[in-house]
Amino acid sequence: MATIRDVAKAAGVSIATVSRALNGSTHLAPATRVKVVAAAEELGYQKDRLAAAMRTGRTGAIGLVLGDVMNPFYAMLAHCVERAVHSHKTSLVLSNAHEDGQSYENGIRSLVKQGVDGLLVVPPSRIKPGWKHPAPPEGIAMVALDREAPGTKIPSVLIDSTQAMRDMAEHLREVGYHRPAYLAGPEFCLSGQRRTEKLQEALASCGFGKLEVEYCPHEAVSAASATRALLALYRPDIIICASNQIALGVLMIAKSMGMQLGSDLGLVAIDDIPWFSVMSPAITVIDQPVDKLANLGVTVLMKQIFGAAYVPKAGDVLVAGEGAFIPRESTQGPSLSAQYAGRWLPESGKTV
Question: What's the rounded Cα separation, in Å, for the pair 340 and 49?
Fold first, then answer.
């Protein structure tokens, strides 16, 4: 393995000059820097991160504790975070919490032991009543993404979908839906509860009555069971889903029952994924700008790591961008298809 001494010899400069060139010093002639970098690349030289950390107190690594990498939204979030982190010439270390509170806390501890300079975290949705978010480890900057971390002195960076929900509610009223239901994700997630409240307000402002809410994890199989419960107890003409994974569960049940999406049953998913727009029918969504979420989260974290004036206060919530309502074929308006019309008992709302 090449050493810094080998690079210095190949470039014809001192070891100190190699160090300055590879650490981005501006007090160096451009031609010298180019020569050193070229020699380092040719020899396959890699900096000793442990030695650098001992000198600077930083490892050049950022930790990300993710909700669940199986969720396409969080997979995309990890991609965008990694791209933003690399723009700051740092690397990313990932921990998958599987939406579980204990796994989330274990992930934080593990990344801290690995010596990360800061943490980006997606607080878990599957938690017990009364669960409290852990305080940030001493000396470690931390920023919450997508969900709030209440009661802690760390900022939360979120997407505001308030207007998108209003646009959705107006669209649903205009095309003729009357009985909305909501698959809301796990019951005790604070951010999920606030999203439910905003959705209820948006629908009420457009004249809709009571919103039926069913709770389930952000996973397709659980969402399918919750969908069956909704269809058995309350006959919705449209189901709004808190995530694309939950929407997948609804799609599974709709297919098994021979439903025509949009007419027999409307469907809206919060969070878009590429194949939603090319399905038949295409799925209506509230799209969230995940790139803006990642970029602002990384920027805020870097400001803390490098001692910027911004000091977060408990409960700080920063808005990275606004969600956008995108109407598609799955909300074309209710009209029972011939093959499906006989499967409901309208008086009781139960299937036969």
Answer: 63
Q: Per-residue confidence at 347, pLDDT binned at 50, 70, 90?
A: very low
State pTM to two decimals. 0.78
H-helix or E-strand containing 118? strand 118-121
Task: Establish how many alpha carbons lie within 13 A of residue 159's alpha carbon, considering only the half-sphere containing its beta carbon.
Answer: 22
